[in-house]
Amino acid sequence: MSFSADDFARALAQHDYTFEVGQTVVGKAVNYDSDGAYVDIGGKATAFLPKQEAALRGGLPLEAILPLNEEQKFLIIRGQDANGQVTLSIRGLELQQLWTRLIDLQGESQTLQVVVTGTNKGGVTVDVEGLRGFIPRSHLLERSNLEALIGTQLTASILEADPERDKLVLSNRMAEQSSRMSELEIGQLVQGTVADLKPFGAFVQLGGITGLLHIKEVSQNFVPNLAAILRIGDSIQAIIINLDLGQGRVSLSTKVLENRPGEIVDNLAGVMAEAEDRAHRYAEKLRQQ
Q1: In this structure, are residues 114 and 106 in contact, taking their beta carbons and an 8 Å threshold?
Q2: In terms of pTM, does the model score above 0.70?
Q3: d(Cα 88, Cα 105) in Å, to the nearest integer?
Q4: What is the 3-class SS of the chain, one letter each residue?
Q5: Residue 101 half-sphere exposure, CB side, CA atoms within 13 Å?
Q6: Domain residues of the chain, as ranges?
Q7: CA separation (Å) from 173 to 42, 51, 93, 147, 154?
Q8: Each residue's pLDDT tens digit, 219-264
Q9: Considering the domain 21-89, what is its CATH architecture?
Q10: Hey, what CATH topology would domain 109-178 get?
Q11: Would you tell me how many other CB atoms lie within 10 Å of the CB of residue 161?
């Protein structure tokens, strides 16, 4: 029994091809034109991939991104027209995959590298692998000259990743704090700068993070007036006695460096000069406990 061309056409016409927006399909590019590429996805008509939908990041020619007759996944972004042609996107598929990865990174508290692309009153805009993100000024380590950040690469952690609202908010400060915290350990001697004095203790800057030297940890003797010992801007060495990675808190102590109660009060410079040797003795004491 013969099967003519007309029979084939009628059979093809009876076949129900259903392609919907948001569907992922597999196809092969069969031809290029100045505006994009025609792709065979097994439908009644070849689908069309506009040039601007070829990749999330531009720069490469369409022929390099989509070689002829090589299978590739596509996202349908526009349904069939009167001729049965659908519109495809590789960019949209890459965008979906990127959002999924960013959400995973946020859940795992992982950091990533971003490039600053612009500034506004609230902070800086950044490029995140082709996606636009935002870092608020309060979440930048460098806040005084935002223009100088344009073109630079920053380490950032994700505060909010919402593909439905196309909203990506990041933090440079938290990422640097997380990185710095991972380098610290209990019993370690650190050097910092007194950033602020409060009735309950001193805040010490430790290269991107802030530690608290509580007034009870300054000396083995009671300290009635911390300002009589320390001033804002002073360089100081202290031992880490507690780390809270979740809250980003570092607790410090100088009293563990004392050879006698009250030594910090009447001989701070002497204690600081011998801080490294005294820290070794303290570390040995911890190991023996």
Answers
A1: no
A2: no
A3: 28
A4: CCCCHHHHHHHHHHCCCCCCCCCEEEEEEEEEECCEEEEECCCCCCEEEEHHHCCCCCCCCHHHHCCECCEEEEEEEECCCCCCCCEEECHHHHHHHHHHHHHHHHHCCCEEEEEEEEEECCEEEEEECCEEEEEEHHHCCCCCCHHHHCCCEEEEEEEEEECCCCEEEEEHHHHHHHHHHCCCCCCCEEEEEEEEEECCEEEEECCCCEEEEEHHHCCCCCCCCHHHCCCCCCEEEEEEEEEECCCCEEEEECHHHCCCCCHHHHCHHHHHHCHHHHHHHHHHHHHHC
A5: 11
A6: 21-89, 109-178, 185-288
A7: 50, 38, 31, 18, 10
A8: 999 999 999 999 999 999 999 999 887 677 899 999 999 999 999 9
A9: Beta Barrel (2.40)
A10: OB fold (Dihydrolipoamide Acetyltransferase, E2P) (2.40.50)
A11: 22
The pLDDT tens digits for 81-113 are 988 899 999 999 999 999 999 999 999 888 999
Q: Which two tokens stand for residue 121?
A: 């009153």
